[in-house]
Design goal:
Layout (H helix, E strand, L loop, with lengths): L2 E3 L5 H15 L7 E8 L4 E8 L2 E3 L2 E7 L3 H8 L2 E8 L4 E11 L2 H9 L3 H9 L9 H13 L11 E15 L7 E8 L2 E7 L2
Parallel strand pairs: 1-4
Antiparallel strand pairs: 2-3, 2-6, 4-5, 5-8, 6-7, 7-8, 8-9, 9-10
Helix pairs in contact: 4-5
């Protein structure tokens, strides 16, 4: 679930909160799943993956990851991302463009210490995206870390939060005759400019 804290009161955020509450009321599965696309400057390719959005704090959108992962290196060399959310139960898609950076360490600590021990064991044991000998090797390593309760109290330096701040939103609402409604918000000089787009 996404935790909303003092969410920004500008028009796109108000619209997002209304849609989120609507989707939550009818039990939208995986409501916190968002697709993040980033640019790999080495290969000159776009990469996409789903992550779990944990917080929206004012105008910052926050998730957590391994800082040695592929996406982490991409964020470091190219800090602009695209984000997509799709809630099928309300026929809604939200697209964003944003700038991403790491959260501060104290916020990463705060979230880490509130998590389930099993998730923290995985944060310690996983060399995310690295090639492995076998899945059994991953399981054995995870189980070893799970036994070390004292170690799991300490957040590993290579794991923590990312925060992004959107500068563009598009809200897409599906229609049974393909007359889809598309509403665009673009941030410019301190204000959100609204437009409606062709389907």
């Amino acid at each position: 679930m996404i935790e909303l804290n003092n969410i920004d009161k500008t028009e796109p955020y108000i619209k997002f909160e209304e849609l989120f509450n609507k989707a939550k009321e009818i039990n939208q599965p995986s409501i916190d799943a968002i697709c993040i696309s980033s640019y790999c400057s080495d290969k000159k390719e776009i990469d996409s993956r789903y992550v779990n959005l944990k917080y929206i704090d004012k105008n910052e959108w926050i998730f957590f990851s391994n800082y040695t992962s592929k996406k982490a290196s991409q964020f470091k060399t190219h800090n602009q991302i695209s984000v997509s959310i799709y809630w099928n139960k309300i026929e809604t898609q939200v697209r964003m463009k944003a700038i991403i950076r790491k959260t501060n360490q104290s916020f990463s600590d705060y979230h880490y210490h509130g998590r389930d021990t099993r998730k923290n064991a995985l944060a310690h044991s996983s060399n995310q995206s690295k090639k492995i000998e076998s899945y059994e090797h991953v399981q054995n390593k995870y189980n070893q870390y799970l036994k070390d309760k004292s170690l799991l109290k300490i957040r590993p330096e290579y794991w923590g939060g990312y925060t992004f701040i959107p500068y563009q939103f598009e809200f897409w609402t599906g229609h049974n005759r393909r007359l889809n409604y598309r509403e665009l918000f673009e941030f410019d000089k301190g204000n959100w400019n609204r437009s409606v787009l062709e389907p």
